[in-house]
Amino acid sequence: MRRYLRILALFARLEAQFELAYRTNFFFDVLQQIVITATSLGAVFILFSYTDTMNGWTLPAMIVLVGVFYIVQGVGDLVFMPSAQQLIEHVRLGTLDFVLLKPVDAQFFVSLRRIKFTAIAEIALGFGIVIVGFLRLGTLDVVAALLFVLTLACGLVLVYVLLLVLGTLAFWFVRVENLLVVYEAFTDAARFPIDIYPFWLRFAMSSVVPIGVAVTVPAQAVAGRLDLIGILVLFAATIAAAVFGRWFWKTGLRSYTGASA
C-alpha cells in the first residue's frame, strides 16, 4: 500500500510540473471554472426567486446538490477522465505494452496516471458551496454528515467504474471517444436532481450512467430525503460495480493484442 502511495505521489509531482510550466493557461483555467461555478449557483438563486421548492427540493438542499455536482465532476476531471482518455489512446496506439511491463498493477496505473490539477479548484469550489448549503439548512447532525461522506464516496466509486468500463471498451472497439462525450452530456444533466426528469432519463442516470445517483443521493442524505433502503441499495450497488469493473478490466485485458501482435 505504501509503495502505491509513493507511486501516486510521483504521478502527482510529474503532472504538477507539466501544468505549472504553463502558468498563464493554468490561471485562466481556474478563472474559467470560478465563472462557470458562480453562473450555475446564480441560476439556482434565480430559479428559487420564483418558487420555494422544486419537486420537494428547497433552496439550501439545491445549493448542497450544486456543490456535490462540482465535487463529483471535479474528481472525474482531476484523474478519472484524463486517465480514461489516455487508456483509450494507449490501446489505439498499442503503447499499453509499456504499461503492462511495469511492476505495478495495470489497472492502478491506467486509472491514476494522468492528473489534471486545475480540477482541484472545481473540487474546492464544490466543497465551499456544500458548506454554504449545510449552514443554510441549519439542521445538519452527525449522522447526516456521515451519510453524506459515505454516499459521496460511493458515488465517486460509481463514476470511476463507469469511466474504467468505457475506457476498457477500447480493447474491442478501439475508438470509443464518443462514449466519453455521451458521459459528459449526462454529467451536465446531473446538476439538477434526477427525480425532476422523466422516467426514461431517471433510469438512464441511475443505472446506465449512474452520474445522477452520484450527485443526487449525497444531497438527499443531507436533506433527509434518503431512507435506509436507499442507503443499503447504494452500498450494494457500489460493491457490485467495483467487482464488475475489476472483472471487466481483466476480461478486456485478455483481449488486448498490443503493438507487437
Outline of this structure?
The protein is built from 12 helices and 2 strands.
Describe this entry's structure for a reader.
The protein has 261 residues and is mainly α. The protein has one domain (2-254). The chain is 79% helix and 2% strand. It has helices at residues 2-20, 23-48, 59-93, 96-100, 106-112, 119-137, 142-168, 170-173, 177-189, 199-208, 211-223, 228-254, and strands spanning 53-54, 57-58. It has a two-stranded antiparallel ribbon with strand order 1-2. Strand 1 and strand 2 (57-58) form a beta hairpin. The radius of gyration is 19 Å and the shape is globular. The two termini are 33 Å apart. The model has no long low-confidence stretch (mean pLDDT 84).
